[in-house]
Amino acid sequence: MSAPGRDVAIVAFAQSDHRRRTDDLSEVEMVMPVLHEVLRQTGLRTSDIGFTCSGSSDYLAGRAFSFTMALDGVGAWPPISESHVEMDGAWALYEAWVKLLTGEADTALVYSYGKSSPGSVRDVLTRQLDPYYVAPLWPDSVALAALQAQALVDAGHTDEAALAALAARRRTDAAANPHAQVTGARPQGEYVVAPLRTGDCPPIGDGAAAVILAAGDRARELCERPAWIRGMDHRVEAHSLGVRDLTDSPSTRLAAERAGVFDRPVDTAELHAPFTSQEVVLAKALGLGDGVRINPSGGALAANPVMAAGLLRFGEAAAAVHRGDSDRALAHATSGPCLQQNLVAVLEGDPR
Fold first, then answer.
1. 45/222 Cα distance (integer angstroms)
2. Which residues, in sequence order, are CB contacts of 210 under 8 Å at separation 6+?
3. DSSP string computed for 203-251
4. What is the DSSP letter of 148?
5. Is 61 helix (H, G, I), strand (E, B) or coil?
6. How many CB atoms lie within 10 A of CB 37?
7. What percent of the chain has pLDDT over 90?
8. Could you tell me which of 271, 265, 253 has the C-alpha nearest to residue 313?
9. How far is CA 7 from the centre of its chain?
10. Going by fewer Cβ within 10 Å, which terminus of the chain is more open, N or C?
11. β-strands 341-348, 227-236 pairing
12. Pick from 269, 274, 289: nearest CA to 340
């Protein structure tokens, strides 16, 4: 939906250095430096924040209500207005945006984190599947992505050479990103699940991200060039993979339409595409041409901390607006198998 009545912007963004393992850090220790940095950028203190929302997964942590422990990194005393989503942090941002639109708060802190290293994230993500027909078969996240990739190859939308070239571009771009986990073009490696090779798949790693939202004049006080959220929308595909065309993403297209993406061209797009084949699907659904810079940060192929990778796309798109590298950016996050859920937003800077 477009932003009704009240202007809300992302005014600050911070992230951790994304690493293959963080055995030496708890979730709190991983999150705290990121929270301190995002607050430092604005000069705000925790007590100045009107609403706090986080995104994470108890399945990754292996214990119930694990997000309550991460609140130690925020400081929950004196009492704060706080919420949590069992989703990527991009959906926490969506909740905070709605909160600010209602006028119930003027500022919001959004953060998310994920430690994929302790277990098999491929197996953990099977818990997203239909529990009656698909989950009992135990297809993991890479096998399902390979099913989608093969459908694209069979339809003539791409081939293995094109996917390899895409992977090389993204990781070459990531060389300029000091927080990226994997940088630089490299051999595609062996098949993980055909037609996907190692290079077509995201790295497994740990990381955290945070953004601050502010409304109206407060945003201009906190940031020289706020990234105004002009529209944001979330749509979902059918749960059953068998009734979907895996070569297309109508939910992404509809979310983009409702968010106002197609009203006029964007110059930058941060797409949450953990697999090379998924970027092909998203770019097609969004109609992104050669003039659009796609994932200049390297995207999820360079760093993919589960539950934070989507929020990273929003943060990177906002940071491009803050720096003046973008005037109108698209931010996208996904969740579920084969791009099942898709959240799309338009971020704009003030005219220069």
1. 12
2. 13, 14, 15, 31, 34, 35, 37, 38, 109, 110, 111, 112, 311, 315
3. PP-EEEEEEEEEEHHHHHHH-SS-EEEEEEEEEE--S-GGGS-TT--HH
4. H
5. helix
6. 15
7. 78
8. 271
9. 22
10. C
11. antiparallel
12. 274
DSSP character at residue 258: H
Dihedral sign (CA 280, 285, 289, 294):
negative
Is there a contact between 331 and 78 (Cβ–Cβ < 8 Å)?
Answer: no
Q: For the CA atoms of 300, 304, 307, 313, what is the dihedral angle to 10 degrees?
A: -30
Helices 141-154 and 276-286 pack at an angle, to 10 degrees, of: 60
Name the residue type at position 312.
Answer: L
Tokens for 33, please give them. 């430096």
Q: Phi/psi at 181 (nearest 5 deg)?
A: -90, -35
- Asked whether 334 and 341 are in contact (CB, 8 A), the reply is yes
**Collapsed DSSP state (helix, strand, coil) of residue 86:** coil
Look up residue 166 and give its two tokens: 């895409």
Summarize pLDDT for 274-330 with one digit per residue, the tens. Answer: 999 999 999 999 999 999 999 999 999 999 999 999 999 999 999 999 999 999 999
103-118: pLDDT as tens digits: 999 999 999 999 988 8
